[in-house]
Amino acid sequence: MRKFTTLLMCLMLFGTLLAGCGGNKNNAANSPANDPAVNSGGNSNNSAPEQSAEEDITQKKITIKVHYPLPDETTLRDQEDDKIARFQAKYPNVTIVKDDWQYSVNEIGVKMASNEAPTFYNTWATEANFLVERGWVADITDLWNNWEYKDQINPVLQNQFIVDGKVFGVTQNGYITSTVVNKKLLEGKGLTMPSLDWTWDDMYNVAKDVADPKKGISGIAPMGKGNEAGWNWTNFLFEAGGEIETTVDGKVTAVFNSEAGVKALDFYKKLRWEANAIPQDWALGWGDAISSFQQGRTAMVIAGAFDVIQAALNEGGMKPEDVVAYPMPAAEAGGKHYGILGGNYLVINPNATKDEQEMAFRYITFDYFTDDALKSVEDTIQARKAEGKYFIPTPLEYFSEDSDYAKKIQAIYDKYDNVYKYDPDLFGLLEGKPEAQYGTQDFYATMSNVVQESFSKKGTDSKQQLDVAAKFVQENYFDKIEVK
Predict the structure, then answer these.
(1) 164: burial class by Cβ within 10 Å (0-12, 13-18, 19+)?
(2) Domains of the chain
(3) What is the mean pLDDT of residues 430-437?
(4) CA atoms of 435 and 437, how far apart (whole Å)
(5) Longest Cα–Cα distance in the chain
(6) Is pLDDT of 54 > 80?
(7) Which of 173, 282, 287, 365 has a 20 to 30 A CA-CA distance from 301?
(8) Are 425 and 333 in contact (CB under 8 A)?
(9) What is the mean pLDDT of residues 420-440?
(10) Structure confidence at residue 259 (pLDDT)
(11) pLDDT of residue 90 exceeding 80
C-alpha cells in the first residue's frame, strides 16, 4: 500500500544499502548487456567494438532528472549523492538534476501535462494499469530485454509492472503483509506459540488470552486510523475468499460487500467486542501500531515484517528470539495465508527522449547485482554489529530467491550472528495477493470509516455497513474509471 511504503521501504535492505530513491527504495543501475563499455560484471571491456559518437550514448550530452530523497532523509541523500558521483564517473557525459518530488495520484497528471515530472519516478504496485492507461509511463520493453540481469529479477514483484506483455517499470523491493508476534508476551501468559500454519481461530485465541487491558496490553493492534485501517482489514477479506472489485467489459464493480467481506468484518468485531483484545485507544495509524509493538504493549501487529522487526530489535531493545514473523492466518485450516503484496517501482517518463530514457534505465539499475552492492551489504552488517544492533533482511528482495546473487547474499548473512533469521518454514506459507488496480486508496479510505464504526459502535450490521460502503465507492470512484 502506498501510504506505508515510504516508511516501509526506507528501511528495506537495498533502500538502506544501495541509496534509495524517495526514501523508500533501493535505486540501482547496472549497465545493459548491449553497452559496449561494460561486461556482465560492470567492468571495462576493452575488447568491445567502438561505436561512432552519433551512436554511442556515452558520447552524447544527456541530462536526466533523478528521483531524490526528501530533505529530512539525510542518510539517504548522502547515499544517493554517492551513487550520483559513481554514476557520473562512469558516464561523465551525463548531467544529473535532483528532484525530490514524491509521487502522488493527485499530482502526476499535472506534472506530466506541464512536463515537470522527473525523468524517472517512484510509484507503487497499485498504479501499473492507472499509469499505463494514461500514458504516463514509458514502455521500456526493449531496454529490459537487452538487460543481462532480467532473468534474475524477482518475478513475483516484477510481474506487477508487466502489462499486456510489455514492461513499464523496474521493481525496487516489496513486501507481503504479515503478522509479527511478541513471543515473550505469550510466554509470560503461559501460552504456547501457535503453528506458523495458523488460522483466524488461533489468532483470536492468542489475542484474547494475552490481552490485559488493565495493564494497557492488547492481544493485537489492528490499525484503526487513516487508509491503513482499510489496508489492514483487506488482508482478512482476501483470506476469506473475497475480492475488492471485478473488471468486466471495461467496467469496475465493487464486490467487497460479499459473504467473505461480512465474515472478515465480523471477525474484526469479535476481536473488539468479544475478546476485548485490541487497544482501548484503537485509533492507531501505521507508526502507532509499530510503536505499540516495539514498546511491548501489544502481542501482535499486522504490517510488512521487516518494519516491525527492525523497530522492535533496533529501537525497542527486544531480542531476536522474542520476535517471530508469521504469515497472515488462514480463515480456516487448509486455507490460504493471503497477505497483501505491495512494492515500489521506478518508472520512466514517456516525455523523455529515447537517450534520456536509456540513461535513466542505466541509472535505475546501476547498483543491481554488483560486487560493490555485496560489499555494501557486508559493510552495513559490520557497522550494525559495531553499534550493537541487528541487520534485518527483507523477506522479499528485487532479485529472485534462486538467483546466483541471492546465494552470494545468503553467504554473507551466514557469516554474522547479528543478522536476523526468519523461520525457513515461513516462506513456504506466505501467499502474496496484489492490491486492486483501480481506486485502491479510495477503497481503503472508505473501509477505514467502516472499521472505525465497527470498533466504536457495538452491534452494527456488517452486511449493511459493507453495502453502504460499496455503493459509495461505486458511485464516487469506480463508475468514473474508464478501463481501456
Answers:
(1) exposed
(2) 2-174+343-411 (3.40.190.10), 178-340+436-480 (3.40.190.10)
(3) 88
(4) 6
(5) 76
(6) no
(7) 173
(8) no
(9) 90
(10) 98
(11) yes
